[in-house]
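Weekly modeling sync, notes
Attendees: S.R. (lead), two postdocs, one rotation student

Agenda item 3: backlog of single-chain predictions. S.R. asked that every request posted to the team notebook include the full sequence so nobody has to chase files. The rotation student volunteered to paste the first one in as an example of the format we agreed on. Action items at the bottom.

Example entry:
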Amino acid sequence: MTATALGGATPAPAAAPKSAPEVNWTYLLLGFAGMVIGQFMAILDIQIVAASLPQIQAGIGASADEISWIQTAYLIPEVVMIPLSGYLSRLWGTQKVFLISCTGFLVMSVATGLSSSIDMMILFRALQGFLGGAMIPTVFAVAFTAFPPERRVTASVVMGLIVTLAPTVGPTLGGHLTEWLSWRWLFFINVLPGMLVLFLVGRFARFDTGDASLSKGFDWAGLGLMAVFLMSLQFVLEEGARNDWFADTAILGLAVVAALTGPAFVWRSLTYRNPIVELRAFANRNFTVGVIMTFIVGAALFGGTFLLPLFLGRVLAYSPSEVGTTMVVSGLAMFATAPLAGRLVRKLDVRVLMFVGFILCAWGMWDARALTEEWGFWQFAGVQAMRGAGVMLAMIAAQQVTMSTLPPHMVKNASGLVNLARNVGGAFGLAFLNTSLTTNTAVHMGELTSRISQSDSQMQGLLAGMAQRFSDSVDPHASALKAVWGMLQKQATTLAFGDAFALLALACAVAAFVTLFARPVKGPTGAPPAEAH
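Predicted structure, as returned to the notebook:
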């Protein structure tokens, strides 16, 4: 007897599994390529002026104190746009936000290059940083939403190369552009690639559509708190070491402002129905661990890129081209490591890969603690190769840990938080390293001078020989004392740089063990773990 005869219902046929939407690879790859070029420009412009500040200073008649704002003015507003871009992408769509960001960035690049005074340049650099900031995190969001799971690692490798290479090659490219053309081309150079970006993104980057309903109940209070908090924090980190930290009234005042507005912004984001930044992603353990890792990667990336060129220029008196030749090893190591990292992410637990990356980075930085004035290209090459390979491995693995277990609706906001963590990590790292260099140079100078007495026979012999060399000067003995003091200062500075590299090594070693707190992540071809949903 059939089920129908018994009054039962005929069983419904099993539903066919939903097939994945077909990907138009031409549009996806060309649109993504345009966005990657834009991201490279935005990150490159942070450091491209680093080797050319003296020429810019002479060109616009700025003082030594004012010229440092060429970099600071770019970074402070940029940290506001990076987390805000996630909300704007959901509101207007990724393509529209990116096109507006790139157009504004190009206009401000030209305006900065045409600046005739320091005030004009600071204003246009601030607008350039704010408008261009949206090009950085939106690429991450596209990589984890538009690409199918089995192709996300490849996109992640491309992003890892951009994020690590752009600040590394920035000073080298900037120094050569200034030598070949003029410092104004540091900014004009953005125009041609920027036009290509506008064409590719405008033609092919149709990844999503915006949700206009998000404009209702826009959180102006949250935006104000976020802007004040992030800009105050960035100013304190950028200018603190230069202005003796809390001994400076402005630094102290802004630190208090950041301490008050930071918790207020977090409270507002967690309680308002339509927050600017969705902080609930931190409830996901892997996201939280990944953000911590990204913060430390930022410190290691920007810290290493900051320390070595500074040592080469300040202690060894290398020219910009010689600094670039030495630093290129790091970029080559990253290029060589990227394809390998892409393969390993597919085969290994990404926690293992992240652990190995941080250990390699720590190893390279620990070797650099023993640097001396006699070090040459090959000693620095070994350090740079280890750091470059380690940072690349850690960066790509951290991206997978951070984003792979998040539900799709959180990815756009989360990408802004991840990029913010990297930038703020870099700012913390630079502030800490600057303070360490200043403090430890004074400490080592005191130790060296305390061990030397002018009555010592060897010191007397050294001073006599120096005085003989300066016999044509007005006061040979004073000239000899000054020369010896310069030698001691150089040695103290070298020891302080070694201490700074050791601090970076310890931070990377600690980060390696923090990776053990992440949950296992399935390979990129598998579905995210159930907890993500």
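Discussion: group reviewed the output briefly. The chain is about 75% helix and 0% strand.
Action items: rotation student to repeat for the remaining queue; S.R. to check formatting next week.
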